[in-house]
Amino acid sequence: MTVTPMTERPYQECTRCVMDTSDQEILFDENGFCNHCTGYFEIISKQTYQGEASDKQLELLIEKIKKAGKNRAYDVVIGISGGVDSIYTAMLAQKHGLRVLAVHLDNGWNSELAVGNIEKILQHLKIDLHTYVLDWQEFRDLQLAFLRASVPEMETPTDVAIPAVLHKFAAQYNVKYIFSGGNYVTEGILPKSWHYDAKDVKYLKSINKQYGTGRLRTFPTFGFTKESWYKLVKGIKMVYPLNLVPYNKKDALRILEQELDWKNYGGKHHESLYTKFVQSYILPVKFGIDYRRATYSTQICAGELTREAALEELKKPPYDLVQIKEETDYLCKKLGITEDAFQSIMNQLPLSYRDYPNSRKWLEFIYRAYRKLKGQ
Description:
The protein has 376 residues and is α/β, with parallel strands linked by helices.
């Protein structure tokens, strides 16, 4: 294997948000503004809530979904993690009279608080829930393979499984629409260099082949070919309704807490114990990637946080200095490795997707062709 060297560049931090050169591909203009916040403002000016136009667009979408769901058990499938965005999306769909099938992926790392949020709130909303449980031995082996591969995409196994399972249930119940809680307002900034394309099945299988102990027999993969089959043959569409409403994270939190007794789990995506550990400890300590920068930068651009407050928060460590030993012990025990083995993984030279077989060039060609056909 040939190791691709990381190019060194002088440290620089955006003067408008808090993104910096921990993203190796970041660009700055003459004002010191980075491409992330500049791109954020361009996107939200066109692809987020636009008043009456978005209201009408959502109204027409709901009518279309109800028509497609006629004589079927459900109108829409929604992936539920227990976090703010997915729960709020489910509530939004229910308030618009859609018959929702909630689907939760159980990868073995759910926090008790997230599970409690899901069960309690869906019962209150009278929404049916299907939980898809991954084969733990197989999934654990795949997670370990990505850890041993020394790449920052440690969450790729979960990121692949979620859309695979959502489309599987949509096809099973002949539902034509999947709602995602993803949105530009709260997730508009995330460097591509921090997380390579999860739809690259060649990349996933190459890492499993090199560092895993067996074939992926039951794991639900989801690459470009399978996604195209669901779209073109089964007619299933992924929709992002939060981009069509005046979505504000603080308001959403307040509504969920007051109306649905939702309990806060702490940080972004911390409904998963593994995600919390990866983002708050492994990524910043080993790769110099602090996901708080992306979250805070998005909040700054959305007017929910001042840059000064974000910089003060970034002075604090991303993980709890007291709890980290306990969390490390839990991770090692659950993954079936010793603490020495985990430290050996942490001490390995950081690599990237470029150091493994992948389909980047082919996928980029396909994406360009698709955008050209769509006129984007």
